[in-house]
Amino acid sequence: MFSKKNSTKSKRAVGRRSPVATVSLILVGLLTTGGAYALFTSTATADTSSTTSQASVNEGKKLFAANCATCHGMAASGTTAGPSLIGVGAAAVDFQVGTGRMPLAADGPQALEKPTQFSNSQVQAMAAYVSSLGTGPSEPASKYLTATGNAAKGAELFRINCAMCHNVAGAGGALTEGKFAPPLKGVSAKHIYEAMLTGPQNMPVFNDLNITPQDKADIITYLKYLEKNPSPGGFELGNLGPVSEGLFIWIFGLGAVVAITVWLTAKSN
Fold first, then answer.
1. Is the pLDDT of residue 43 over 50?
2. Which pLDDT score, from 0 to 100, does residue 47 have?
3. Are 59 and 135 part of one and the same domain?
4. What pLDDT does 9 receive?
5. Number of compact structural domains in the chain
6. Domain contains 247
């Protein structure tokens, strides 16, 4: 009897599962479940993002066909009325369409800024479509558009690279053949950055090798500083500098002296 009891206990001891094994199985189960859930979630997110992006491209393609293809062609490869847009990137589309310069209202020396006829989401959709056709400059990161850079350095860079057309105060100026450099007061930081990046109209391209993203941010900081701090010298005379001030003196100053002299002479007679 004693021998059978011991034998039964021994069998039960051998068949009993160790507590460590139980914990290990639970951990393996949790890790497997968590990993599968994470994989499924990331896949679902990627699929959703891809679907959203493709939907934006499709919407942009429809808008492009309805509003831009007449000049740029159905495949955006260009026609005799407009250049190819393959490879211009999202930044060029956002600038041209976002400022109302495109679609072009009428032929002329250069496209004029006007109220845009598209919503921001529609502009982004067209930018996504054109960007999908070929690699080009993308829209700038928001950290470069805060106007919190080095205004002094931005002023130096602006004088060297931009002032010969836009004036040292960003007031704009005339160019040849009816073209002009527009004033930069009131222009959004994003559009200023995109203009430097893509070189619209007669403007040269300042890519990131010419002017780094941080340098562009400093230029934007300088221009926004000018907007917030008007000239302390009184009437600005169009910000055209000493030439306009000299002409003002010659025309109005000397003209006033001559007028007073004639008046005094006439009075004495």
1. no
2. 44
3. yes
4. 52
5. 2
6. no
Helices first, then strands: H and E counts in the chain: 11, 2
Closest CA to 173 of 96, 99, 240: 240
Instruction: Note whether residue 193 is domain-resident.
Output: yes
What average pLDDT score do residues 30-41 get?
62
Token digits for 184?
């930069």
Residues 100, 117 contacting (CB under 8 angstroms) = yes
Q: pTM surpassing 0.85?
A: no
Q: What angle do CA 100, 103, 106 make, to 5 degrees?
A: 100
Which strand (E) or helix (H) includes residue 181? strand 180-181
CATH code of 107's domain: 1.10.760.10
Q: What average pLDDT score do residues 217-241 get? A: 80
- Provide the residue range defining the domain that includes 157: 143-229
Same domain, 156 and 121: no
Q: Based on the fold, state whether residues 98 and 134 are members of the same structural domain.
A: yes
Amino acid letter, 191: H
Q: Which residues are within 8 A (CB) of 249 and not within 5 positions of it... i.e. 6 or more apart?
A: none
Least confidently predicted of 35-44, 137-146, 246-255? 35-44
Phi-psi region of 185 (alpha: psi -120 to 50; beta: other; left: phi over 0): beta
